From TrEMBL:
Pfam families: Aminotran_4. It catalyses: L-isoleucine + 2-oxoglutarate = (S)-3-methyl-2-oxopentanoate + L-glutamate; L-leucine + 2-oxoglutarate = 4-methyl-2-oxopentanoate + L-glutamate; L-valine + 2-oxoglutarate = 3-methyl-2-oxobutanoate + L-glutamate. Signal peptide: none annotated. The modification N6-(pyridoxal phosphate)lysine is found at residue 203. This is Branched-chain-amino-acid aminotransferase. Its cofactor is pyridoxal 5'-phosphate. Residues 1-21 are annotated as: Disordered.
Length: 363
């Protein structure tokens, strides 16, 4: 699909001053402050996508009966713009996000957006707000494309006939305040994130809404994050709240296979692809919590890490469940985890060669 739309550009007359922006960029946190502009494109059944625009960042006015508020017909994406050492600004595999956006859209009975329009919308926002892309090492501009159902009315016989696609952007430091400090995880046997035939593979807000209660339980149990297990037996590991998982057996990596109930992470796919470049083998498969614990106890399972756009590569140090608890290795970040993190960030920030053609120059 090629892009037929041209974007109207409405600059923000109240864009923040250099001093204000620099104050934010000193300690951006994650998803707290947004840049001066946003992108919107509307969709109407029969007419298609129209009114593409870049406009000042600001609130929306929507009828209280708007479908998204009641039936959560919504989806989102997440990717980052990185400032490389040579000064250029790049995105990492944005066409992969465009494809996943459309896979989510199909599952949510929402319209697909041409991939070129998706990428063009990111380019326009990042180019306009380029001063918001942090220069600090390890920081980035987090991009959040999303789509909502905008038809007003409470009927559920038919999906909304109108939608809005938007992109907002937020300067980001590390998702986890501790940087590469290992996280502790809680095995959720009480709650299920996704079941076969459900929406687990789609990046829809409802998956996250249903996860908060388990995340809150994880924190109450003294853990940082929840680990989701399969819906049927509550034994097989699926993923974390916003990250995929990798298990390291010496120089062999194992990650849960894409069964339809977990998100097909782009970081996960990238690691599966570049593992061989680092002399590692990588495979998709299945691991039960019993095998996880036994592997750690025998020493065969040497490291575990989580990966995702926001979390990058984060070691998992310890595991706790209703009836079990154990540590992974000695609880500190392992060498394979650190090597993978360095390779990934090296490609993203430009210090390592981009042999897989993943880096997309924006500015
Ligand atoms: N799993 C879930 C539930 C997520 O929300 C994310 C974050 O996007 C991921 C995995 C990792 O995906 P990606 O590597 O594409 O960011
Ligand atoms: C991401 O890594 O982009 C995510 O979506 C994780 C989370 C903030 C939902």
């Amino acid at each position: 699909m090629t892009s037929q739309l041209s974007f109207e550009v409405r600059p923000n007359p109240q864009a923040r001053s250099t001093a204000e922006r620099e104050r934010v960029l000193e300690a951006p946190g994650f998803g707290q402050t947004f840049t001066d502009h946003m992108v919107s494109i509307d969709f109407t059944e029969g007419e298609g996508w129209h009114d593409a625009r870049l406009e000042p960042y600001g609130p929306l006015v929507l009828d209280p009966a708007t479908s998204v508020f009641h039936y959560a017909q919504e989806l989102f994406e997440g990717l980052k713009a990185y400032r490389q050492a040579n000064g250029s600004i790049v995105a990492f595999r944005p066409y992969a996000n465009a494809a996943r956006f459309n896979a989510s859209a199909a599952r949510m009975a929402m319209p697909e957006l041409p991939e070129d329009t998706f990428v063009e919308s990111l380019e326009l926002l990042v180019q306009t707000d380029r001063e918001w892309v942090p220069t600090t090492e390890g920081h980035s501009l987090y991009l959040r494309p999303f789509m909502i159902a905008t038809q007003a009315g409470l009927g559920v016989n038919y999906p909304s006939k109108t939608y809005r696609y938007m992109v907002i952007a937020s300067p980001a430091a590390s998702y986890f305040a501790g940087g590469v400090k290992p996280v502790s995880v809680w095995l959720s046997t009480e709650y299920t994130r996704a079941a076969p035939g459900g929406t687990g593979f789609a990046k829809c807000g409802g998956n996250y809404a249903a996860a908060f209660v388990a995340q809150r339980q994880a924190v109450a149990e003294g853990c940082d994050q929840v680990v989701w297990l399969d819906a049927v037996e509550h034994r097989y590991v699926e993923e974390m709240g916003g990250m995929n998982l990798f298990f390291v057996f010496g120089d062999r990596l194992l990650t849960p296979a894409l069964t339809g109930t977990l998100l097909p992470g782009i970081t996960r796919d990238s690691i599966l692809t570049f593992a061989a470049d680092l002399g590692l083998t990588a495979e998709e498969g299945r691991l039960s919590i019993e095998e996880w614990q036994a592997g750690c106890e025998s020493g065969e399972l040497t490291e575990v890490f989580a990966c995702g756009t926001a979390a990058v590569v984060t070691p998992v140090g310890s595991v706790k469940g209703a009836d079990r608890a154990w540590t992974i290795g000695d609880g500190t970040p392992g060498p394979v985890t650190l090597k993978i993190r360095e390779e990934l960030m090296g490609i993203q920030y430009g210090s390592r060669p981009d042999t897989h053609n993943w880096v997309h120059k924006i500015a």
